[in-house]
Amino acid sequence: MLYFDHSATTPIDQTVQSLMSDLNQNLYGNPSSVYASGRKAKHAVEIARKQFADAINCQPNEIIFTGGGSEANNIVLWNMIHKKRKHVITSSIEHPAILLVLKELESLGVKHTIVPVDTNGYVNPDDIKENITSDTGLITIMMANNEVGTIEPIQEIADIANKHDILFHSDAIQVLGKLPLDVKRIDIDMMSFSAHKFYGPKGVGALFIKSGVIIKPMIIGGSQEKNIRAGTENVSGIAGLGLAAEIASNFEKENFSHLLELENYFKELIIDKHNDITFNGFDNNKLPGLVNLTIPNIPSDLLLINLDNDGISISNGSACSSGTISPSPVLKAMGLSDKSNLESVRISAGKYNTMDEVNKLVDSIHSSIVTIRKNT
Q1: Domain span including residue 288
Q2: Predicted confidence (pLDDT) per residue in 176-186, tens digit
Q3: Residue 78: phi, psi to the nearest 5?
Q4: The CATH number of the domain where 299 resides is what?
Q5: Are residues 240 and 263 both part of a single domain?
Q6: 320 is known as an active-site residue
Q7: Global pTM value
Q8: Which of 92, 88, 132 lies closest to 110, judged by CA?
Q9: How large is the C-alpha radius of gyration of the chain?
Q10: 140 in helix, strand or coil?
Q11: Which one is catalytic: 81, 220, 305, 320?
């Protein structure tokens, strides 16, 4: 199988897998226990906390481990029911773990404003500023979009939030290992992460909470994670996250260069064969290796089926419910027509992909286009 859907999930790094297998086999003590095996398990958790903190430049006590990125986002948003200022500003291209939660919170008195994006999926900081009210208690804008890769002006938005004494959170789930990440330089209050986006395990994530920011627990029952997230820790998963974050951070520049090289090579080849293809989002202010493209008169679902038959995995980024394909809300927010939306696919390369695999991907897309057009 040729895998080009790394924005959805990444394969586990073999070094990470080896560590987790060893811990699952040999380190089964409860981290809350006082005997030796419990202390060793606790030590493994704290090593991971330090590894992750170093990867994003914060203190270990500012990291809370979660069950994934969606849970990290939920912790931040559900805390708004405890705040005096209950208005949230977000964007139209956020992940459902932001937008659907905000919709759910409306009945509990938490209001929100959704600011638009331009045709590249870019948030204008002035739109944030203009929608601030006396009741605004949180701004949440993703650092980079998962469908088109657009990198948002996080630093400018952080400056606006700090100037108005408003908490600022960012879903940075797509970023670690692809772009430099320094939460202290940005001066952000909270940031969400998910291990399976940077070659770690599924089902484990992290939430950065700047010292001094008060967060009430959403899961209650134990004193784990500074009383914020009760439950016996997933020791091997957390250790895997920590090591994956360390590897991703250490090789960020190499990963960026490799992914950008694959992306540019793909664009060159595919345009040479089909010059009617258009690319959605920025050419450069975006995550490397992520390409969202529209192929006129080629339904994305048919293209995906053809590629899948060739053993190649890509995504159309569209919501699929009960067999019905619907337009991507992200591309819709960027102004694409429903027709173009449903003719768009996302290709996201990873660190293990090669130039030869890109050649095979392009050949498969080309032959699929020819076949589909011949049969329609």
Answers
A1: 252-374
A2: 999 999 999 99
A3: -65, -20
A4: 3.90.1150.10
A5: no
A6: yes
A7: 0.95
A8: 88
A9: 21
A10: strand
A11: 320
